[in-house]
Amino acid sequence: MQKIIFISIILFSSFQLSAQNLWGKVSPEEWAVKVCPIDTSANAMVLIDSEFVSFKYNEYGLNTVYEVYKRIKLLNKEGFGYATIKIPYYSHLNSETFEQLDAQILTKDEAGQVRATKLKSNAIFDEDMTDFWTFKKFAFPEVTEGSIIEYRYTLVARSFGSLHDWFFQSEMPTLRSAIKLKVPDYVHYTATPQGDVNLNQYKSEPYSEFMDVNMLVKGGMVRQQQAVNGMVSYYVMKNIPALKPEAYVTTVDDYRARMTFPLYSITIPYDKIRMFNESWDEIGAKLMKSDNFGQHLNEIVGEHLVAAKTLTNGLPDTMEKIKAVYTNLTSKMKWNGQYRLYPSRRLSKSYTEGSGNSSDINILLIAMLRAAGIKSDPVLVSTRNNGMIARAYPRYRQFNNVIALVEVDSTWILLDAASPFKPFQLLGENNLNYQGLRINKKSKALADEYNSTWIDINPSKNATKSLISTITIDSAGYMGTKTIFTATDYPAVKCREQLEKESPKDCLKSNIKFSNGVDLKDEKVENEKDFDKKLRFSFTLENKENALQGGFLYVNPFPVKFITDNPFKLTSRTYPVDFGYPFQQNILGTITIPDNYKVSELPKSMNIKLSDGSAGFTFLAAQVENSIQIKSTLSVNQNQFKPNMYEDLKMLYAKMIDVYNTTIVLEKNK
Amino acid sequence: MPNKLKFILLLIHLIPAVAFASKVSEYPVNEIADSLKKNAGAVVRYDKVTLNIQSIHKYAYTEEKIITVLNSSQESEAVIKVWYDDRTTIKSFKAWLLDAEGNMVKQFNKQDAQDYSTTPGFVMVSTERAKVWDMKKLKPPYTIKYNYETETKGTFQLPEWRPADDVGISIEHANFELTCGEDVSINYEVAKVGSRITDNHNFQWDVSGFSALKKDDYAPAIWPRLPHVYLMSKKFEVYGYEGSSETWNDIGIFKNALTKGREALDSITDSKLSGIINSTSDKREKIKLLYKYLQDNFRYVCVSLGIGGWQPQEASFTMQKKYGDCKALSMVMKAMLKTAGIESYLTLINTTKDRVEMKPGFPHSYFDHAILCVPLPADTIWLECTSSVDPFNYLGSFTSNRRALMVINGGATIIKTPLYNEHNNISSSKSVIKLNTDNVVSIIATVTKQAELQDYLRSVISMKEPKNIESAIYDVSHLKNATINSYSITQVEPDKPNVSYTLDLKNENTIKKTELRLFIKTDIFTMLSTIPDKNENRTLPVIVNTGYTQFDTLIYNLPIGYEPENFKAVDSNEYISEFGYANNNLKYSPETGELKVIRSFCLKHGSYKQEQYSDFRDFLFKGLKISSPDLVLKKKG
To answer: What's the complex ipTM?
Structure first.
């Protein structure tokens, strides 16, 4: 009989991970604190955020058990939004279930009495997020300033694989975040920090105990007490600042300080060692063979297949055939707004009914192209708001969307038939997340063998917005401005979406900034429904601006522009700036110098570039005979900028806005 | 406060239960007509309310409402609140959440509600509660459907019917059915509804195809423009007190009955108060001293238990506890003044001015607040008894410029509270603006805000949160992107509605230096910032609720060697219109480089016809240019 060495649960005095110890017990300091000590602007703060991960067996095998306890203090009314909690869990096939979930709110009244109100179980909801994930959602009642909310739950994962990431950082400042893992030697994880992780405490020590274990013996599977050795590890971070979202980022989640635990290997007694780095090839193959995904492409009957042949019959060119099928699908199908990896039903049914999720539509595209004899494969994608793919950790749950790769001549193109208003080869903006995984057959001979290849998803470089104005000044000094506004690619998609719901005037007003009180009229729009052409507006400004003062004309060279305030307001930023796609903004103008006037002062030209050339702004004001030519261009040549470029970007934008505020001075001829 | 807000939202009455079969899929979002989606964040698909006033002692209410939330701007419509207290019981409640296609996603029952006390944070004890069902569970668009029944004892306050209660909400169909018992007789006021009145005891009102209102600038209040029905029972009873509403005077008689015998203070208190006022024989001074005593020693706390919602607690109780709600504090103030031989009158008022105006021809239970009116031979003193920081004889935007009901012996009379207009709401400042050698523009200023312009700032200062004070000062001062280096509150006058403070700022946009010129902006501290949009189809009158005047002196210390280019060294410009005026006075001394700008801008309180909207816009545009001119100086030689 092995000696039982009890785990020394001498948690460091500060390792109080036990929810049992703390539940309902709030210290006088926690009651008294009115302002967050690490961030005086915080509206709420996390006092304790802790998780205990352990393992246990049931009749089906080894389960991972997550016991979480969180305590938050609501400092003022603006923090009440944090009293609505969302806990994500992997609900697909009941893989993860809650064994316990309690929540309560503690409030101290004027007399110093503490009142605890427990959350009723019927106030807790499930909200589906994707095919695989669900949110457990609940809101605390009777929230007041100074209330303390706490909740604890036990989530049991029916199988085991890589552990959930533990996020140290959230949108609230956190005083203490701690995770404890008790892992039997059967399983090995490689704990890997990501983001700005500075552990205050880290400890790892071995333990021994008796555990009920499933064992394979001659007669079959039995459950017996076995001595089990393992490691208990603690990771603690204290005084973690809040992660503040700002403009231009894919998803802030990608940059949160966190600990990840990819599974390295399993060694179950009486079983072989299994290494868990399942490859992407294996994942791709599994998906193609699954009824939920790849087998849809093996449907042999359906209206969609007939249509594909009819539409392409007689067309000589591969590209023309592709366009014919693509156009048919995009005009027939109405996308329901959902991004999914799996089609929701048989392809033929989606086609007949004319609606579906993103997978229904794009898998349909692939099926139809194949029926027309064109080689096409699915490309698995994780959308921008779903987070970047971690290639080191192959898991198919990382994907939430699929697009199509189509071979044309000796190269290939990517197509996305789901989101509307796009020109032919533009992918929906949410798909611009750097990479996708293409799954294709190894060869004709090996019918069931697949290759998975990473392909770069490079956004097109044609996203442009332009304003071209002709400005005249009458004898009384009033400026008359006629402007043409054009947009291509994603800016055009956005405008076309707006034109579905709003008038051209409202669309212009939301995309362009005008001087105070100046209205526009005679607005016209061209190519609204012709997605492959530039979207073009023309309009005239009310001539309310009077440039004449005391014999001088003070002319505003930018009566129309795209921006008036700097979007970069922080003093520094720890995560990258992501514009989504490279773009260019041009503002051009021709100002006719009135008779009897000449140029007195023109603003200085400007040409500034970031040190690596990744973005720049140019401005030129020059006299050409009797007119002044204004030309300004903002070029952003890559979609992402590292945090160390933030200051420079902020400065670039500040200088650009400064230029928009300059004045051209004309004086009367003597 | 009882008679106030709780009444304003969905309220409860009883009716025979109506069965609603819940179909599998109903009210899909795509069936809503485009005209009803325009400017709308939510659409009332169907609303049916029945109110049965069985006698002057009780009524029963039912409502079925189906509302589609189109986007986040009106998501609050998906939070259902049903008020109840010791007179009202909720008999049944059911709700369903439907997705955009009309499929039922989730069902809610009475016990799924969160139960809240309805009174705000500083209120202590109240029997008023609300059951709340938060149905915001999906991403819009989605539809919620609910029905419920309530029963209420007492008919002094009847439910208001307003199926769309905000801008951005349109109505497909809504219907209100009123039945009165034999002994019950009703007065009502309606707008934008169709009526079908069978006889004096059976009424029906409905609305169909109402398009959502938009929020317009300088526009009249919203609630009067939405379809509504307001009711008042000619004879009513509540907590055993009966009354009549034939005239406003009758309402006064009812209120007198509630306050009877509650005004007395004991003799010890009497002598204590005499001690406070015996230093002066001037009536006004006595009122001032007693008001200060009230502000220094009493706290606002609402104690509304049952009848307590309408009947003030006894003055002697308030004196002893040193706390009370608006009625109690006003009553104790009245009692204190009485010991000094000064008559005063409880005045009932409604604070939600943007919503409803008291109509002389429609007496009804309309009030949510009480103040005290002290008429003197030469003028009238108004006292807000719930505030420990308000200046003496000042009401502020909370209760200014509206009709109120002054309760006098034997009844009541309609009276109007003071208006604070452009002669009272004054902002003034003096600043020195320097362009430093490193091209940083520094601004040192002293600012004074008066009357309604200082209401918000005064209350924020009294709460003593530095972060909020700085933020309030930034907003109230109209700093145009300047950065505040530091600030200091110099005075919060106790007897006058004035607040003064100093600022140390920097703002790179105020002075811009180019090779040949200096471009000067004078728009710092300018209160008028945006001009409302052009609208040739404006159908609403133009309303300026808060008239104001601002006087500013800006002294720029500029480098020497320049001369004025678009202005004369000594110059003045003026612009006067019926809407207000603007002027500037410029003085530049080339020897010192000092440019002095004295400017003022006045926007008058008033209301104008819709045809004048375009002229009004022109006034704002021109007024802004004259009062905040852009000045240019050129390098000499």
So the answer is: 0.71
Q: Give the integer Cα–Cα distance in Å for B596 and B586.
A: 6
Pairing of strands A192-194, A187-189: unpaired
Whether residue B140 is predicted with pLDDT greater than 80 in this model: the reply is no
Domain boundaries, position B318: 248-416
Cβ neighbours for A132, distance < 8 A, ≥ 6 positions apart: A90, A91, A92, A397
Residues of B in contact with A662 (CB under 8 A): 514
On whether residue B421 sits in a domain, the answer given is no
Residue A305: which of A287, A319, A325, A335 has the closest Cα? A325
Where in chain A are all domains bearing CATH 2.60.120.1130? 463-668
Shortest CB distance from A144 goes to which of B121, B137, B630? B121
With beta carbons under 8 A apart, name residues in chain A contacting B632.
549, 552, 554, 663, 665
Of B111, B512, B514, the CB nearest to A601: B514
CA distance A525 to chain B (A): 21
Q: Does A385 touch chain B (CB under 8 A)?
A: no
Does B635 reach chain A within 8 Å, measured CB to CB? no
**Side chain identity at residue B613, one-letter code:** Y
Rounded Cα distance between B399 and B358, Å, is: 13
Partner residue opposite B134 with nearest CB, options A139, A145, A663: A139
pLDDT for res B3:
42
Beta-carbon count within 10 A of A84 CB: 13
pLDDT digits (tens, 9 = 90+) for B513-533: 999 999 999 999 999 988 998
Q: Please report, in angstroms and rounded to a whole number, the separation of the first and last CA atoms in chain B.
A: 72
Q: How far, CA to CA in Å, does B430 sit from each of B311, B433, B445, B552, B597?
A: 50, 10, 6, 6, 10
- Contact flag B533-A519 (C-beta cutoff 8 Å): yes
CATH topology of domain A463-668: Jelly Rolls (2.60.120)
Coil vs helix vs strand at B175: strand
B546 falls within a domain: yes
Check CB contact under 8 Å for A552 and B565.
yes
* Residues B220 and B284 occupy one common structural domain: no
Tell whether B92 and B119 lie within a shared domain.
yes
In this prediction, residue B16 carries a pLDDT of 28
In this complex, the residue of A139, A544, A603 whose CB is nearest that of residue B514 is: A603
Q: Does A554 touch chain B (CB under 8 A)?
A: yes
